[in-house]
Amino acid sequence: MKIRVEHVDFEENEIILRCRELDDEMLEVLAVLRERSAKLAGFKDGETHLMQPSDVLFAEAVDGKTFLYTTDAVLETHRSLFSLQEAYGETGLLRISKSQLCNLHHVAKLKSLPNSRIEITLDNAERLIVSRRYIQDLEEKLGVADY
Question: pLDDT tens for residues 65-91?
Answer without folding.
Answer: 999 999 999 999 999 999 999 988 878
